[in-house]
Every structure is written in C-alpha cells, then in structure tokens.
Amino acid sequence: MSEHCGENAAIEVEIWDAVRLGRSGFGAVLAVGGGSARPPLVAHLRLAGDPSLPSIGLVGKGIAFDSGGLNLKRDAGEMSWMKSDMAAAATVAAAIRLAADARGVGGGPTVEAILPLCDNAVSGTSARPGDVVRHPGGETTEIVDTDCEGRLVLADGLSWLRAVGHDALIDVGTLTDGGAGFRRTGVWSNDEEFVARVVAAGERVADPAWILPLPYGEDEALESRVADLRNAPLDRPDTARHAAAYLARFARGAAWAHLDIGGTAYLEFPIAGLGEGPSGAGALALAELLAGADTASRR
Questions:
Q1: Which of 97, 103, 151, 230 is catalytic?
Q2: pTM of the predicted protein model
C-alpha cells in the first residue's frame, strides 16, 4: 500500500506486510513480531531532496508494546509504560514531517526511513532464545535474549538501507537508559564529522545529546557459534555499549550514528521543565538535520 503523508505530499509512504517483509529478508522483524496476534509491519517513508547532497537513511524502533518476549520483563513498573517502546518510530516519522514542512521543494538531503512496527508478545509462536534470524543482505543473529528485540529490528532496517546505498545512516531506539539519564540522549557513531553534525543540530533546537565512545574489545562478547553474532552478551550484563557495538556491525562502511532515547523519550515523573509522559526526544534534532539547515558537505 502506498500513499502520501498527511497533508504533505512530498513524503511518500508505503506499508509493507509480512509477505513483503519475508521477500525482503526482514527476518528479525518477523521473529520479534511472531508472537503477537497482530502481524508485524514496516512503514517505509521517502522524502526526495537535492541529489548533490549526501542522502540519509533512518531506522526507528516501533515496538508497540514490549513484554520482553519469553525473557519476560520482571519489573511491573517498567512493564506499565512499555506502550512507549514505539517512541523512536514516532520520533523519526515526526522529524521527517517537520523537515518536509520546513524546507523548500527539493531542498535538503534525500531521506529514506524504515519503521519496523510490531509487538514483542508472549505466545507459542514467540521467538525463542537460541533462534537464529537472517537480516536483509544475509547476515545472521543468534537471539540469546528476547528482551533485546529493539536492536534486532533496527539491524534489519540498517541492513536494508545500507544495501540501498545511502551515504549516512541513523538508527533511533528506546533500547536502554544509556546516555545522560533523563536529560541527554546518548549517541554512538563510527564517524566523528557526521556525529558532530547530529549533536550540533540538537544543540541548535534545545534537543540535547552527547557523544559516547564505541566500546573497545566488546566484539568478542557478541560472538556466536551458530550465527554471525548474537544480540546480547552472555558472560556480562548487557548495556548500551553492547547495543551500539552490535548495531555498528550493520552500518559497515557508511557514516552512522545510533541514538538511544531509552532514558529521554518517556519520563516517569516531571523533570527539567518537562511533564510526565512522552517527551518527543530526538525529533527536533533530526528534523533540523534533515531540513538541511547545517552546512553538510556536498559530494
């Protein structure tokens, strides 16, 4: 199904069903969403721009509810706000809409987004620890923790966008509380110039983030005997740096930034002038970047 986004005809939107996802190799999205009575979907968004500017591909985690899967969440307080686990998909969609409204026709970079949309539910068809999923392009992941599902669906999107050939990639997820707690989004990257642009865009619109280093020597914690890698370590606690190290593998040679809005997207209590509930973290920063307001280098 293809249509335009609301009142802005510049944004092309397609909804991919499970059949299309299977043909396109989105094995992780199908596995994560496989335990729900509601089939998984992907929203595909595209905003055409200036072909002389480097293009940007984005992925936003859209888990409509996260029970933890078979590795069920044990914290009732955390479970109560897992409806917010789709915040990253909402952030990316909002950023693209804001950027389209702000820039002129054809201005700014070409933008393409993959928004995996599904429940991480518990049933007889749920993904199991030990399952292996295949991503677009053929790379495989061993699922060792079904509650680390966000990075799995982001890996599908990154793999697909990388194959398209975008110059830069951004993934956004509510994965952990990594970053600066409730105040700043944590950002990991493989490209100093690109991540500096992302953070600077956020500073201009009061949507702050800070850069955290990719871990050194953590790759061995994600090694698998039956797949290219596994989605979490088994010999140490899983942290934001492991999620970043995992996702970095799927960016390959493209400039890439990973935004973990797990601590900033949904506030359990009022803080820093923001009320309890969804904050919209990351939307203004990404909109500023996608609108082409910075001095992005041309090809």
A1: 151
A2: 0.94
Say whether pLDDT at 296 is over 80: no
Q: Is 74 a catalytic residue?
A: no
- Quick one: what percent of the chain has pLDDT higher than 90? 79
Mark whether 61 is an active-site residue.
no
Q: At what angle do helices 192-204 and 283-290 cross, to 10 degrees?
A: 110
Task: For each of the domains in the chain, give its residue range(s) and CATH number, in order of start.
Answer: 2-290 (3.40.630.10)
User: Catalytic pick from 73, 83, 183, 249?
Assistant: 73
